[in-house]
Write a structure and sequence with these properties.
pyridoxal phosphate; globular; PdxT/SNO; pyridoxal 5'-phosphate synthase (glutamine hydrolysing) activity; PdxT/SNO_CS; Rossmann fold; binds glutamine; about 35% strand; Class_I_gatase-like
Length: about 190
């Protein structure tokens, strides 16, 4: 199993370490040709505007969009989720737009920009999973083909649409491997 982590900006190494802990080959992706021979790709947290611009500058944008439409497994965490979203409520920018969700950037406001909680995500694990939110977006709307995986205080913070997984939070910043295990399984099943 060979899984890439988009390494243009943001929190890359923590995802690499989690994938390695699950015995995957984990590779940092910076160039368009590196998208070949991957079983899946993680789009990490960071700054979605910056990563979005770099996707275009590197030429990764078009090829990645095409691969995702062909069923290539991707998982966007936080900024990565914004990159996948068809629509962003409070931003003019649009990025890959492959996932039928509308997100709100920096949705938790300035006072509680960052917080930690835990939740049972039935689709993923019977035990509670720690959820770390850092200037996080949440999902405002999903179309009917999108499966809602988790809500926190009535806001959607994890969802899946076929080969695409999106989470508002950062499992790579905890010791918990369950979300990564779930994504690795998505890559196996594809
Ligand atoms: N606030 C960032 C954005 O809008 C996302 C934050 C994160 O990825 N931790 O792009």
């Amino acid at each position: 199993m060979r899984i890439g982590v988009l390494a243009l900006q943001g929190g890359v190494i923590e995802h690499i370490n989690h994938l390695k802990a699950l015995n995957c080959e984990a590779v940092e992706i910076r160039k368009v040709e590196e998208l070949d021979n991957l079983d899946g790709l993680i789009l990490p947290g960071g700054e979605s505007t910056t990563i979005g611009k770099l996707l275009i500058k590197t030429g990764i944008f078009d090829k990645l969009r095409e691969k995702i439409s062909d069923g290539f497994p991707v998982w966007g965490t936080c900024a990565g989720m914004i990159l996948l979203a068809k629509s962003i409520e409070n931003d003019e920018a649009r990025h890959l737009q492959t996932m039928d969700i509308t997100v709100k950037r920096n949705a938790y406001g300035s006072q509680i920009d960052s917080f930690i909680t835990e939740e049972i995500i039935e689709e993923i694990c019977a035990d509670p999973i720690p959820l770390v939110f850092i200037r996080a977006p949440y999902i405002k709307n999903v179309e009917s083909n999108v499966q809602i995986l988790c809500k926190v205080n009535d806001k959607i913070v994890a969802a899946k649409q076929e080969n695409m997984l999106a989470t508002s939070f950062h499992p790579e910043l905890t010791d918990n491997l369950e979300l990564h295990r779930y994504f690795v399984n998505m890559c196996i099943k594809k």
